[in-house]
Amino acid sequence: MMKVAFLSTFALDANVSLINALKAKCDIYFFTEALYQIHNFIDKDKLKNTISEGTQVEELKRFQSLIPLNKTYVIKGTRNSNIIKKLYTSYKIHQYITKINPDVIILDNYMLTYFLSILRYRKKMMMVVHDPFLHSGENFLIDRYLRKIYFKLIDFKILLNESQRDDFIKHYNQDKTKIFTSFLSIYEYLACFKTGKKPDVAQFNVLFFGRISPYKGIKYLLDAFIILVKEKKYLDITLTIAGSGNFDFEIEEYKKYPQITILNNYIDPEVLADLINQSSVVVCPYTDATQSGVVMSSYAFKKPVIATNVGGLPEMVENKKTGLIIEPQSSQAIYEAIVELYNNKILLQEMSENIEKTYFSGEKSWNASAESFMVALSKIKE
């Protein structure tokens, strides 16, 4: 059986499910860095060692049915600015990886955490490129610099949508025989936080959640909802905006409406699970995008999604099947989509059933995604 090391610094949201699917197909070892608690819910100050086995980390025990804790390692994170300590930690990690001696390695980031291992094992490494192109408003110099280095060091890459593959190959001058694609599936980790509270069927709840950023198009959604409110025809519709970050526009005027709730702070997984469960539909009004964990979080509760026709979103939201695809940067389009689903509860239910059929056990399940990863990994071994 192929031995795989998965080196991560990102959130557990997708990784726990992917590893769960991969562990039936390969012998997998998982590394994650506890730096910011919002990334993987681990308080790094509680960690006694530089590297701790997953069985020793209390916050991971709720995921023990998804990831093999005895083959999971949690790194006590260090900021990149502390370069000496960062490189020492990288050296310690490299010792662990050398002992494991994996056949292939999956890397999902371009941080310095695994830098020494990248230099040593880059020829048998595959990089997961979450964002083939950096989002507008987030194109930072340090990100561009590190991406350039890692893209040059690591030949094999896997994108999480098909639609941006050709543009990615052309833009970064990549060898197309070494660029693969897979996809995200439902974020099962949220089920570990589910409270069991039943949705309020008397309300039609529209939800936006996620990090607040200019490319998210939140103002278009808020303006669309104001149209609904002023019509005074849809008295049982509410809107919730939930997430941390700074708005790039003035939001005080929107707070005047009792139908709108704005939770401008980090949303704990327990709260997030409840918000999605209580929603009728989730809206992703993005002005640009790659793929979206928001969609997969929504699908975990079988909630349809209204998404804009940008990036890989049309691959994730099948129009009229699992949600609605609309034109970007249009409050009118968002308004019409919300009204359409509000007035057609049968379609809303059919979408929910389609999500279950496709993503829980069908062609977009984690098992199918893991098969794509295994095909790519087998090419590295050739």
Rg, rounded, reads 21 Å
Estimated share of beta-strand residues:
15-25%
Low-confidence stretches: none
Architecture (CATH level 2) name of the largest domain: 3-Layer(aba) Sandwich
CATH topology of the largest domain: Rossmann fold
- What is the CATH superfamily label of the largest domain? Glycogen Phosphorylase B
The strand count comes to: 14
End-to-end gap: 15 Å
Total domains: 2
* Biggest sheet statistics: 8 strands, mixed
Q: Give the integer mean of the pLDDT values.
A: 92
Characterize the overall form: globular
In CATH, what is the class of the largest domain?
Alpha Beta
Percent of residues in helices comes to: 25-40%
Structural class: alpha/beta
